[in-house]
Amino acid sequence: MLTVKIINMKTKLIICLMFLSLACFGQGYKATNGITYNVGDTITLNSGSAVDGSFQYFQLGGLKAGMVADMNKGKEQFNMGSLYSGLKIVIKKIKTFKALSQTKTYFVMEGGYYLYIDDAIKAKEIK
Fold this sequence. Notes:
The chain is of the alpha+beta class. The protein has one domain (28-122). The chain contains three helices and eight strands, in the order H-E-E-E-E-H-E-E-E-E-H. Strands 3-6-7-8-4-5 form a six-stranded antiparallel beta sheet. A two-stranded antiparallel sheet has the order 1-2.
């Protein structure tokens, strides 16, 4: 009798964890272009919007950016070059942060790059 209760409790726990994981990972982000992006989706880069053709909103991110950061340079030092035009990249994580009363969403992309999605859409950096 006791083993049946333990098995039932384990089964219930496993089912609850499965639903919880689906709820956490199934969430997407509806961007300003009306498209809902999810982890695992592929995005194709268009061309960079900076004067030199680099991407202002597709940037080196995370630990890589911290390793190459030069305190004497601005944020444009993290812009990815025009050679990335046409690249297809996969969304690994969807994150948000708050800065000066604005909430911004960015995607952590394959390779550790950051894509500031709504800004990239506005600047036509993605297709």
